[in-house]
Design brief:
Chain lengths: ~190, ~190
């Protein structure tokens, strides 16, 4: 990314059959037991370094509520990075780096995010990701595919209703059997 | 594969959002215009060599009808390899290497395919692939993901209703931006 450029990346973890959550919201399926010999491993410090490049997280209200719920067991997943929650509801603010926004996504991006940030990650949910793709607000997709078929749940891409060409930027396979597909969205 | 072993591989080409066909059955979306610098290319002769290792194709009746339709413009896609079409309908036989089977998948596999073949590829459609996964008849999945979001169409994995662990066997990215994910189905 060149200095000064602004980018919104949609990041999702999904099963091979495209589900990002189970119906009961349980998350144990993230811990797959696969081993892919040719895959890479990433150290904790490297992950921390990488996460520091993210300026701001954007999420929908249910993703936020789910993250709050999970934080009771695992801690808050998004650190001290500013986090914008799109919602029309009144929700508890449990951390000082969380802001709520009740306007439309285009206004959020153009009037707020572009003024303050460069590297924004949209981390869910599926509806919000779809809105951003439909509105041509998202620049990249990083989809991490776990080695499992869930068979049921909340689909990431659920008949988005729009044909969209992509450019493959990179593919990374991990020792855990997870594969990350990184695409640029050809919005022009 | 060790000599004498029998294996059924499900092979599908899908969009990133998991569709294997458009509603109008058009196939021009297979010809994506992406270029992935780090990807590999495979020569025609290499593809031919690879295809020779396949002993038998299995497909459903609509996939067969679609292949017949496409063969008028592009030729028959499955060469002279024996092809078994699972159907209860009466369909035209336009090539001598095509057989019809109207029994259930388990009988087909145990009483027929296992007797004659070793490396069987199931090439569609989605319903048949799901039946084979549910019945634990499939051993591997090779899913080729094209760099496009279709937004609509026939989904490959459509709420299969069964959780199934996978083992990542290999990942191959092509110059065309297509990524092939190759999994073993952990049936035991």
């Amino acid at each position: 990314m060149t200095a000064g450029s602004f980018k919104i990346t949609i990041h999702m973890v999904a099963s091979l059959d495209g589900f990002i959550a189970k119906k009961d919201n349980s998350v144990s399926w993230f811990e797959t037991t696969d081993h892919y010999e040719k895959g890479i491993t990433v150290s904790g410090p490297d992950i921390q370094e990488f996460l520091k490049t993210i300026d701001c997280y954007v999420m929908g209200s249910r993703t936020y509520e789910h993250a709050l719920e999970l934080s009771k067991s695992y801690g808050w997943a998004y650190g001290d990075i500013p986090t914008m929650v799109l919602t029309h509801r009144t929700l508890p603010i449990e951390r000082s780096n969380i802001e709520f926004y009740s306007g439309d996504p285009e206004k959020l991006v153009n009037e707020l995010l572009k003024q303050k940030y460069r590297n924004v990650w949209l981390v869910g949910g599926a509806d919000l990701a779809k809105d951003f793709i439909r509105l041509k607000l998202a620049d990249e997709i990083r989809l991490s595919i776990l080695p499992i078929i869930l068979g049921n749940g909340l689909p990431f891409f659920d008949h988005i209703g729009l044909e969209q060409a992509l450019h493959l930027k990179d593919v990374t396979a991990y020792k855990s059997g997870m594969v990350e597909l990184w695409y640029e969205i050809k919005n022009s």
